[in-house]
């Protein structure tokens, strides 16, 4: 049930009555859960064919490269990049289904935080010609947690920083350690986020209006927040419209 209460005031602003109503939301909940099931089934079914298309594309790419056909190799490279985007999208949909069903699981790794940050930055730097990603600071700490999932959060921060700063070329990645926590922040000098939207960006399917020309479906930060929360960390953002944004997370080290 959903409860709504509204106070009614007299002329002296004293509450004279509280009007209330209840609404049965069982059918809405059922509909939402069916929608999640549907999303889960569809994304699961999409995964297998997309994985084989990727494998075939790579076989073709190698053949054309060996034969010296540069044009075909470049085109197949572009195809591969699009397949990667599709794979990431399907992965996000599957993650959301897992989160909603309480089935998102975490591995327990021990890993060097600085090494992870350097590797992810190098990987993402290769995907952009325009932006220069600068690393500042070191933690020299080992983190206990799911390395792949934490990598996923860093990738999400970095790809967002690139996407939402089309007219600037610098991204700053800062690592630090204090109070038994490692903190990573990713700063861009892009479009920024209005103050009243700052908390909503972590909600499922939420996108700030005005950014519709930039591709995305509003799941990355929702998944990132869940990953950090489940590993006893914290996540947040500071931003100024037109100046840029800094997304950060902290984790126990
Ligand atoms: P997506 O990028 O696919 O829309 P996200 O969940 O990663 O989904 O982000 C949610 C929303 O938060 C984005 O649609 C965008 O409006 C806003 N946002 C995220 N990162 C940034 C950023 N670095 N700068 C400005 N806005 C951002």
TrEMBL record:
Q: Where is the PAC domain?
A: 1-37
Q: Where is the Histidine kinase domain?
A: 41-253
Compartment annotation: Membrane
Q: What is this protein called?
A: histidine kinase
Naturally occurring in which organism (per UniProt): Dictyobacter kobayashii
Summarize which stretch of the complete protein this chain spans.
401 to 653 of 653
């Amino acid at each position: 049930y959903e409860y709504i209460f509204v106070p009614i005031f007299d002329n002296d602003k004293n509450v004279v009555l509280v009007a209330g109503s209840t609404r049965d939301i069982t059918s809405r909940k059922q509909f939402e859960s069916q929608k999640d099931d549907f999303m889960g089934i569809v994304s699961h079914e999409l995964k297998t064919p997309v994985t084989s298309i990727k494998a075939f594309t790579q076989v073709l790419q190698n053949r054309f490269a060996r034969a010296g056909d540069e044009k075909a190799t470049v085109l197949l490279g572009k195809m591969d990049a699009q397949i990667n985007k599709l794979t990431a999208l399907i992965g996000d949909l599957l993650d959301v289904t897992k989160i909603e069903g309480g089935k998102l699981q975490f591995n327990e790794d021990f890993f060097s935080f600085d090494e992870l940050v350097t590797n992810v930055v190098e990987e993402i730097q290769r995907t952009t010609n325009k932006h220069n990603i600068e690393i500042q600071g070191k933690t020299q700490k080992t983190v206990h947690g799911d390395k792949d999932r934490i990598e996923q959060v860093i990738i999400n921060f970095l790809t967002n920083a690139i996407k939402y700063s089309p007219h600037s070329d610098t991204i700053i990645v800062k690592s630090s350690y204090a109070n038994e926590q490692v903190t990573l922040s990713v700063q861009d000098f892009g479009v920024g986020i209005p103050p009243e939207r700052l908390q909503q960006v972590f909600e499922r399917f939420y996108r700030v209006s005005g950014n519709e020309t930039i591709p995305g479906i509003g799941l990355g930060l929702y998944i990132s927040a869940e990953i950090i929360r489940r590993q006893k960390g914290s996540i947040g953002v500071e931003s100024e419209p037109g100046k840029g944004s800094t997304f950060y997370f902290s984790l126990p080290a």
